[in-house]
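Sync notes, pocket subgroup
Present: LS, DG
LS reminded everyone that the earlier model was apo-only. Rerun requested with 5-phosphoarabinonic acid included. Inputs:
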Amino acid sequence: MIRVDTSKAAENLSVFSSQLSEAHRWLQKATGRGNDFVGWVNLPRDYDKEEFARIQAAAKKIQGDSKALVVIGIGGSYLGAKGAIDFLCSPNYNLKKKSTPNIYFAGNGLSGDYLQEIVELIGEEDFSVNVISKSGTTTEPAVAFRFFRELLEKKYGKAEAAKRIYATTDKAKGALKSLSDAEGYETFVVPDDVGGRYSVLTAVGLLPIAVAGVDIEALMDGAADMMETCRSAEIDQNPAMQYAAARNALYQSGKKIEILAAYEPAFRFMSEWWKQLYGESEGKEHKGIFPASVEFTADLHSMGQYIQQGERHLFETVVRFEKSSHTLKVPYDAADGDGLNFLAGKDMDYIATQAMDGTLLAHVEGGVPNLIIHAGEKSAATLGELIYFFEYACGLSGYVLGVNPFDQPGVEAYKKNMFALLGKPGYEEKGAELRAKLGR
Ligand code: PA5
């Protein structure tokens, strides 16, 4: 079970007791700001079991008839699945010998080269597509889907292509839903009351994660365990409350940047998921901790200097996992040319633990408070716990900060400009105004 250690952050958490109790009540009773988007709170218990079985069946079918799955989505419709597959299967998943399909993520940007490379990597292999968009209208995934739909239809014909396209979208509305109904694609639902960045435990994340061979029941069980833990209104029983309180206390003391650190390269994309979760939930009304991330020990050799001695507006949250699944001991070398025999016979986990402890003490001494999240072993259940823990803490933390943690009004600004510059019907006036500003 997740344990939060705030002892190296030296903050008094009780200051936030009453705000946290209120925030906790708002989440549990769905009575706070943005309360129509708190469907994720009970999701690990109340998820649609019939759809869950369909997800498992679809994953099995894709594993049987495809060598590759193209997962098309952006933001909350992308990062959770990518993070979970990297963490539980490996960032080198596609390079590994395995019985499950390669998984390529597309529609998460607008690079033509990136898209073309995926097409080339798939080559002549059989493939399927999972297009994920809650709104069904997001430009990046919609454009990518056109490419891969055309590719599928050319390769298999329209009818067979339709059997290889799985759409995860709104249950009733949006362009993707209409297209799916018209073409007969199998569809999965992004629930109305679950926003993109809180949707990894819906079909949005579960289908790609299941295709990669992950036990999604264990993932949901882990999340359900954490959901029960987070029901407690007692701060000493509720790790999400402890984390939310500590980060708000640090923010108030002038620590405006939180660096999420992990000593597992496989966690890198979970950090990207976490950045979206916290950045999009809290960064509004000119407030909010800026979420950053590092991968240790690699980044100790790049960002380590700044963290140790740069501007003191940082704190770190370190996610620590229990030992690796492999025991790797440093070989003995009689010549000892590199002078490393003092480590001979020592396990990599032992060396990593000393690096973690040494770094922790150095950074705290350098003025960077550290919160430590002890996450347990690396497993699907642990990841489920972590996902729920971070989501619940984020909801609490946003409420304590005084914002609506479930909207994202700022994301629209770039979209409007992009549509105007691309000449989308209805944006003519805005387009002229922007072109004038750009001197075109
Ligand atoms: O969290 C969010 O709401 C966003 O990151 C969305 O997930 C992202 O913009 C993709 O939206 P959609 O799923 O509607 O295509």
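DG: The pocket of 5-phosphoarabinonic acid is lined by residues 74-77, 133-135, 138, 141, 195-197, 280, 408 (CB under 6 Å).
LS: The mean pLDDT is 96.
Action: DG to write up.
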